[in-house]
Amino acid sequence: MMSSIELAVTGRMFHAPTPDRLETIDGVVTVDTDGVIADVVHDATSPTAIALVSQARKRWRLLPWERLLPGLVDTHIHAPQWPQLGTGLDLPLENWLFDRTFPLEARYADVGFARDVWEHMVPTLLGLGTTTAVYYSSIHEDATRLLAQRCEVSGQRAYVGRVAMDHPTGTPEWYRDESADVALERSRRSAGEVAEIGAASGLVKPILTPRFIPACSDELLMGMGRLADEVGAMVQTHCSESDWEHANVRQRFGRSDTEMLDAFGLLRAGTVLAHGNLVSTSDAALIGGRGAGIAHCPLSNSYFANCVLPLRRLLDAGVRVGIGSDVAGGASPGLLPQCAHAISVSRMLEDGVDGSIDSDRRGVPGSRIDSVVAFHLATAGGAAMLGLNVGVFTPGSRFDAFAVDTQRSASGMREWSGIDDESRVFEKIVHLTGPEAITSVWVDGRLRSGTAAVV
Ligand code: GUN
Ligand code: FE
Fold first, then answer.
1. b/e burial code for range 200-221 (CB count within 10 A of at least 16 → b)
2. Which atom from ligand 1 is nearest to the alpha carbon of 241?
3. Ligand 1: does its nearest atom lie under 6 Å from the Cβ of 78?
4. What average pLDDT does range 278-300 have in this prediction?
């Protein structure tokens, strides 16, 4: 009988199935012809492991200084902002949007420009281990279609959303949908096109994307809630990001972003709320209750949010959380740097930042997270929020993964014998992996970036 095992991977692997558990697998993982993990065996020398490896059509043995990790799930990224990565960060959010971001996004009316950017961005992100990305596109249907096609061709798992925004003062007249009706029509059509592009592989899906409440009329927000019901697509938007944004919504409605998104039918299972820094305890209960989640964008928040996400409080309240790069509010692509930022901002929240205040009143006790929590959120946590069957190495999960060569990094990462145990190697990978150390990236069981000695 022909084996259905397509690939057997032998070596050392890490995953974080829960926020408090790092598991090391020193053994064999097999992947079937559909890209789904079939077996996980913890001892490569066991008879079971040897039999599985011998049945596999292809074999891949990691080097002793390589580790395999689940692919990274970037739950919040603005594709058209790629060309302004690393710039404009001194501006407050509202000025950054109107003076830098909207003019750049308006340029995606030019499909040639859009194609150039997507061709540079998608392979770069894949190379950094971003196997899933939840994208905001621009308001343009053509550019959005091209982005979905680029993800499909490159083999990146993706949610792709045409941005809807029509508010007469919350958007500039040169970058907006002409009316709520036009926005809804374009969003419906774009979601259909994206769904069609991704139908064959199952990798690419549409996501409805009302930009944020300040950029959308009541009519548009209400219509997007109805559209989500109609087409059954997930929703993404920004929520309680900064003082300015939060106050804008409070002034307009006398209620919080979360309450209003719920009133508009946009707080749904799988809804991705970017930032969420200013959500209250009751907002958190509502988000958790609806099965929505928060994309934690720690670096972007450091520039634009005026505060640190109360991550521990949200996790304790049962809110689903993933990690987002928020390119280009976050000035760095890839999610391992965001894991490090999530850890460091959690320490600042815990200890406080103003040394002139007594230490017992300076911070928020119990706020810190470690590398395992951060990595869990960047993989299994983000996947759970999106309802994706990725992010862990367990039988039945889809095989999205990246390999790190700990001896290749230009960052100073190295395993020191007699000093580094596996948990220290994991910490080093989270903090020190440079792009050059990511040697291969896999989505749905197939090699999508880099090289691997598969025989
Ligand atoms: N709020 C609305 N649009 C944006 C955006 O593009 N980036 C960020 N960080 N916040 C937003
Ligand atoms: Fe954003």
1. ebebbbbbbbbbbbbbbbeebb
2. 10
3. yes
4. 98
